[in-house]
């Protein structure tokens, strides 16, 4: 296996943006990194555009993570960069300036806060010609790396100095004149110290998680990834295992990059082995892989190494770029990739063959090919397993600090989620090995298990997904360098196999289906407008009801006054003539018995009642006028036109205006 170089910082660089020249490298430290025309051209080709992403001026402060392949710095490994962007509010033609750091490991979590402080201090002094603060920043990073911030030879370097002082001690002491015995004692001391140094080198592998890996994982946020993408998180992991072309889109750039690093960290040991991710041409890890010959079950790293992890996801003709500018669009011709972008042009280009698009702003996952969507579809066991993880995250969710669970409990933390995904991936690999073993020994009598149980375990992970995964280069390389009975170490079955019923699965699908619709957020945004519209409708209808009732009351009062004036001269008449009696009887038969000629019809009354039931009554109903005792034909002829035999209702009036 290829031995890793100590964690080092390559350079601190200052990038400025000018409207006439665009982004350019203004200053580098140490200066030797940009000496030479070829080296300078290689750095200026893509580095300024990676450090200054599209739309950076829209943010007051933002960070960008990116990968580079710089042969003059490292011919066999990726260079990892982080930049801090600050807009310049002055009238200078230089609108913005960025400070960036290049290192040989993605220790962005450790560098980010320090880089932000240094960048803000550089802007506060308002003098970009004074770069002493950047020089001090470079030396402080270099010193912290040597003291053991990351994995590498930090501890060994310190012990080497101790060895030198011990070696010189025998020559400074008073010794006997017997030179052979003195030299033998010196050689014995040397051998003893060499043995101690070798023991320290071995111990360095065990301390890897506490130093290097802990520093690398510091820049991820698994809780937020699962809280946003929920069940789709496992689909993204399956797409990554299938080595598909995945693109993340959204703003801001720091969140865009963090989501991708969090996704990569869900595959065991992959985040700390990204040496080949900077370019499709890099494939060093595959050339130096070998089958492990020893296993120490008490050492977690030894167990994972014996299990053949990490998978070689970003190997030959594959790359990973957290932020991809337009200047690197040609890299999308690779067979597989994981990239992030803030530009929609990539989605519109036909040459950019994207298999899946993840939008971090709305937390959606779009799989272009229906066949691929069926391969990464979740099984009932998958949904049950993810539902438990989502419940652990949601129950301990703290909006003020999404990265930490409430009470700092282990359940629901990033370490807990990483451990669960490690168990899932290892169980899937173990189930594949067990199924292949059962298939090879079928009918031979040499069986360690039931072939039916192996088939059930494969089905729990999705048959189509397993078959497609076995055809990938990552699996074939892993299968060649692992033991055939590796399933003895990890149970070859799904973590939730046989633990979910049909009814429970339907409930999980409905629950997360409604959650993905985000109805609460959608309704909350439009609830104010809907409530305002309903209030205006109610006010308008109430006003029209009041106007209608007032006009009806005025008409009834006018009719009552006319009827009273007509009745007074008729009271002196002793007896009506037969003709008048007949006319009166005829007119009385035409008029309704219990209603006024101006009284609203049944349809209008129903409409008014319905409107009052829905929107209430804005004003109390006026008192009805008493009906005259008798109405003659003459009075009917002299009456003014009735207000309306079929008056318009408020509902009809409203919809007419609508």
TrEMBL record:
Residues 551-563, 604-619 have a biased composition (Low complexity). Residues 640-650 have a biased composition (Pro residues). Pfam families: Avl9. One of its GO terms (cellular component) is cytoplasm. Residues 169-211, 548-658 are annotated as: Disordered. Residues 187-211 have a biased composition (Basic and acidic residues). InterPro entries: ABL9/DENND6_dom (IPR018307), DENND11/AVL9_GEFs (IPR051731), Tripartite_DENN (IPR037516). Residues 170-186, 566-591, 626-638 have a biased composition (Polar residues). Residues 10-496 form the UDENN domain. Belongs to the AVL9 family. This is UDENN domain-containing protein. It comes from Cronartium quercuum f. sp. fusiforme G11.
